[in-house]
Design brief:
Helix content is 67%, strand content 0%. The chain has helices at 19-42, 49-56, 60-66, 71-74, 78-90, 98-112, 122-129, 132-156, 167-191, 196-218. The longest helix is centred in the middle third of the chain and has 25 residues, at 132-156. The protein is globular, with a radius of gyration of 20 Å. Residues 48-67 bind DNA. This is TetR family transcriptional regulator.
Amino acid sequence: MLVDMSAQTLPPKAPTPGLRERKKQQTRQNISNVATALFLERGFDNVTIAEIAAVADVAKMTVTNYFPRKEDLVLDLQDEFVVGLGRTVRERRPGESALAALRRAYLADATAQNPVIGFSGPEFGRLITGSPALLTRLREFHDERERALAETLAAETGVTAADDDITPVTAAALLAGVHRVLFEETLRRTVSGEPNDTIAPAIIEYLTTAFDLLEPSLGYYAVRAA
């Protein structure tokens, strides 16, 4: 069914960050860039926070204020990673299910070779897979993302804690599980040395298979009213 979008209200544009906020973002990005370069050169376990602060020309406390955990210096896209699925569901189109919105978003990300879904480059991929601490932190982010998605699905379908309904949690486990499988496959291929232009078509084929498997159970779940 075609939906007339002309009458839909467009979301307001995000306000432009002020000078102070832009400086904070620049400082954060500089610290992350310095840390990543040092980690790639010497290995994650062989670089200290003090060394990162010295090279970035900031106080050690500044580093920990922006990145409370050392692992977050590497996985600095964690905020987008954790909230992305829930945001996609909240912003789904009229007549679109949660499953369809997530499929559409993942296809766009795979086509664009978005680093958030695993297109990190072989050196960075090996940095992650070579560190048990980073792999543990990455698993935590996957778990946090699943919980955030479950909360969004509950809110979008009107389910509260008093309802004792496990549907949002179950749906989130299935949807986030597919994303985890695709992420890990992308990372595996990246570490093995495959170029992104080879990985992307394969992942697009895999996502078609994976989302098709969920279609019978979730194709009509959390559909936004037209």
